[in-house]
Amino acid sequence: MATALISAQQTSGKTRSPLALWHLLSLDAPTIAAVWTVYVSRSFGVMLPWSAPAALAVAVWMLYAADRLADAARGKDLRERHRFHARHRHAFVGGILGAVPILLFLLTQMPHTLRLAWMLQALPLAIYVVAVHALRLPRVPKEHMVGIFFAFTCFMPALLVQRSLPTLIAMAVFGALCWLNCAALARWERTSSATLDAGTAWAAGHLRFACFGLASVATAMVHTSHARIIALPIVLSCFALATLDEKQRSMKAVHLRALADVALLTPLLTWHLLHFLDR
């Protein structure tokens, strides 16, 4: 992975901002996954070893880098992130291969139950990847799948300890946030509604209304002690996405795409609230 990051930065034909590189190097999704996993776990009283979020970040980076390489190989509807991966494909392939032993080592340092749960979750994910890239099935609901997998992945440590109704509700609302993030990207990248499912097409066409609606649903979670700590960053993310939608025309496409993922890092703003749960 380090090989890909260093080579891609050194061989880039023009200077890019740290924000753009964070997105183009496929570091955005791993950051979101690691931050939310630790935050959710702490919210429900689960203390994770450092190896768990580290392994998750490496695995998500490998998945996203490979996905963008595969999209670039198809040569249709390419965005800057796809063209960047295509230009530096050898570095990314080397990085993915180099990350394999790192991931295997980190997996050995994780709790057995969580390791098994995440590995079992990877099976339907592999089927989905095959459906999209190998079989090239039409109308695969990518936006919904992202929401489902991110929600289950980030909430898995909490689910293994506390499978209560508040946990499941919080997971569903977080999954809806991830889905809404994808709908926002579809709107800003002018994705044809014919390639989207009906729900995502509606959300893309009524993004701000959808953001405020999800924020209202998240606000209703404040009645449960653990879920209320999760509700606040979700509300902040919804307002961040709505604000980006209002300002989108004044931003570069690559920066707008990166900021859409920054909008999901709101747990960093509310992290200090976690210590109240430890009292």
Features:
279 residues; Farnesyl Diphosphate Synthase; 75% helix; globular; disordered N terminus; membrane; transmembrane; 4-hydroxybenzoate polyprenyltransferase; transmembrane helix
Distance between the termini: 39 Å
CATH architecture call: Orthogonal Bundle
Report the strand count.
Answer: 0
Number of alpha- plus pi-helical segments? 14
Protein name: 4-hydroxybenzoate polyprenyltransferase
Transmembrane segments: 20-39, 51-70, 91-110, 116-137, 144-162, 168-188, 200-221, 227-244, 256-274
Keywords: Membrane, Transmembrane, Transmembrane helix
Give a brief description:
By secondary structure, the chain is mainly alpha-helical. The chain is built from 14 helices and no strands.
Q: If you had to describe this structure to a student in words, what would you say it looks like?
A:
This is 4-hydroxybenzoate polyprenyltransferase. Keywords: Membrane, Transmembrane, Transmembrane helix. The chain crosses the membrane at residues 20-39, 51-70, 91-110, 116-137, 144-162, 168-188, 200-221, 227-244, 256-274. The chain has one domain (2-276): Orthogonal Bundle (Farnesyl Diphosphate Synthase), CATH 1.10.600. Helices cover 75% and strands 0% of the residues. The chain has 279 residues and is an all-alpha fold. Mean pLDDT is 87; it is low at 2-13. It contains 14 helices and no strands. It has helices at residues 2-11, 18-24, 28-43, 51-74, 80-87, 89-108, 112-134, 142-161, 165-188, 198-205, 207-219, 227-247, 253-262, 267-270.
